[in-house]
Here is the input.
Amino acid sequence: MPPPNAMINVSAPMEARSAGRLPAGDGWWFEPKWDGFRCIGLRDGDEVVLQAKSGKPLGRYFPEVVAMLHGLRPTRFVVDGELLVQDGRQFSFEALQMRLHPAETRIRRLAAETPASLTLFDMLLAPDGEDLRTRPLAQRRRLLERFVDAPPETPMLSVTPGTADRALAQTWLDEGKLEGVVAKRWDGPYLEGERAMVKVKRIRTADCVVGGFRYKTDGPLVGSLLLGLYNAQGLLDHVGFTSSLAAADKPALTKRLESLAGELGFTGDKPGGPSRWATARSTEWTPLRPELVVEVSFDHVSGGRFRHGTRLLRFRPDKAPEQCRMEQID
Here is the structure.
């Protein structure tokens, strides 16, 4: 154990491995999987650091969270949690992304208009200086709750809800209000950088129109399909992509796609819009006549788009393109 008030170095947060279902048996603790920025919060006297999962500092982008942690009575602690920004009744990943901006004036304005909050799910260093990483989660959780409940209380700081009831955690997945559920061993230590937790994401499916495609960067075969859904105005909006294409199927699929190449493609929102991450190659795509329908699985929607790449399940020749509407993912 380190001497009182000694700080610890956290190289990387404990991570989770993916699974298709919640683990069974005794000794598991279940928590919501939040849709935010993973964040290690460190305070050492007047210094407050917000550290991303990558190890990069986040404090510049969330000055209101830094000020909140600085205003707490304990002057030394290390906690693990998630930065969240609420938009109406839901948390918005887009609002979080808007904070990663070079202009300090914009960051300050957004911090005032849509302040972030920090939801905690672990404590690594107690205010008395004890390194808690080897302690079981049950003890760390109890100390974390005591830490958050201590005055001055603030709505910007909370402890994530949790349960030891697997059936209740399963209802969280079934109701579809969460991105997923994370399972942790109730008697487990905090293992930095290791996938010592289990995450189960909520999987949904949608029938989408293939409104375009991109070639592989290193050859003449298809690399990804660009997916679209019809909006309320009857326009085909780009909503994401899938690149889970079997290598053996790509030659025939490429010929099929090239036979559908046309000038229509997406009639609403189009891919390849302005982005500071986009390259000339990444914005190149071939529009298609909206005739091909595919069913894909996805885990999350944000801002009318699939957050991550989807998984191709099957082609749907029995489905009319006009039936592929945005209501599927609302």
Notes: The chain has two domains: 15-201, 204-328.
